[in-house]
Amino acid sequence: MLRLFVLRHAKSSWAVPGAIDMERELNERGFTDLEKMLQAIIEQRFQPDHVLCSTAIRTRQTLEGLRSALKSDVKVTFESRLYSGGTNDYLDIIKSHQTPESLMIIGHNPMCGSLVANLYGSGSEKYFARIALKYPTGTLSVLDFDIGQWSEIKGGTGELKACMMPRKLVQDQ
Length: 173
Known about the structure:
This protein is of the alpha/beta class. It has a single domain, classed as Phosphoglycerate mutase-like (Rossmann fold, 3-Layer(aba) Sandwich). It has 6 helices and 7 strands, in the order E-H-E-H-E-H-H-E-H-E-H-E-E. The chain has a 7-stranded mixed beta sheet with strand order 3-2-4-1-6-7-5. Helix 2 links the parallel strand 2 and strand 3. It is globular and about 45 Å long. It starts with a strand and ends in a 9-residue tail after the last strand.
C-alpha cells in the first residue's frame, strides 16, 4: 500500500507586470492558510516520507510553512517539471520514483487537480465532486494505492482518503 499526498501551493500574490511568474510569493492569506493546514496535518498525522516540490518560490514557501508538521528526516527533492510540466509529467515523476515510500507532491494547478481526478477510483464521491470542479490553493488530497512500487500506479486506482481545503478544512476519514 502506497500513499500519495497532492498539495497545491498556498495562495500567492498576483503576477506583477514584468516579473517572472516563478518568483511569485505567497500573500497574507497564503500564510494564514498555511497555519490552518499545518494544524490539520499535525492532527491527522499525515507524514510523507519524501516531498517532491516544484522549484517555484510559492511552492518552496508552502513547504517551509509546513516543515514543522513533517518528520525531521523527510526527504525533499525540488523538481522543475512540477513547475513547467503538465499532468503527464506529474504522473511520470511519480512513476519513476524508485523507493516504495509515501510521497507528497507540492505543485500547481491545473496539474494538481487534474492528477487527483486522473488517479481517483474510489473513496468519498462528495469530496471528489468538489475538487474535480475546482482545486483551490492550499488543497491537500490524500490517495492510497494498493501497489508495491510507484511504477505500478495507474489512473482510476486511487482511493481518496482525505481532502482538506484551508477555507473549509473538509475531511473524509
